[in-house]
Amino acid sequence: MSLVSFIRIENAHLKKAIENALNKIEYELPKSVKSVVIKPNMCYYWDYTTGQTTNPKVVAALIELIREKISHTVEISIVESDASAMKCRYAFKFLGFEKLAEDYKVKLVNLSEDSGEKVKVKSGKCSINLTVPQTIKNADLKINVPKIKYLARTKISCALKNIFGCNPEPNKFKYHSKLDETIVALNKAMPFDLHILDGTIVAGRQTCKLNLIMASKDPVALDAAASRLAGVHPKSVRYITLAYKEGIGNIAFMPIGDNPQIFEKQFPRKKLKDKLLLTAYRFAVQTRLFDTRLL
User: Fold this and answer.
1) What's domain 2-294's superfamily in CATH?
2) Which helix (H) or strand (E) holds 3?
């Protein structure tokens, strides 16, 4: 059973909330680290106020904590890759990470332009061909900063799904027929050390300020906890159960910190009508009524 912390952000003190979240899961930032990779969620050009992308203020607070606890000279890279309908150079700018990089003197790395090592990874009954970017391979510490949100193809998106953005292949739609297996394969090929969920603003039935930071060393446990927060049973999410079977982490988790039920009551869960519409949308995608390149 893995620890997952739930910490309410008090008076907009993001750094304190992140530090508390790490303390609760008994995680100490290693002093020997020379290079750090941070992977926010930059799935599209949606501003963080939509709840769809990572709040750059959370990443800024994390950078401050890293430099405070490790060293002011540690090399920090914020990473993302191109997608079918999203280009990094625009996302970095539109989502506020270009300014953050200038202000905090950190690197922005488009993984689609990075050199890498080709690997074949077994995931379930599939073998997935992937490329591991050099920036990720060489990093001493890898930190994942996902969002929690509903997604038509996988029910939810959180820590495990966010690593899909580390796949340097721009034409990501080609993996959609084996999306669950690919998500798990990427997490096997590029294991991250720490996962910090940005729950400042969440997208559900509507957008809501949740003022929550969650953290875990186990992405499966974090996703299981986040699924329950959103009213989705984790065992109904195929990539979560597959990740558990492949030994990436535990579905069973121990919540620690603030009471999760407080946030469960506040989370804008989708109602039956919304779920039926989601099912209809998923059917339309599977029957190719929509162009899957847009997903």
Assistant:
1) LarA, N-terminal domain (3.40.50.11440)
2) strand 2-8
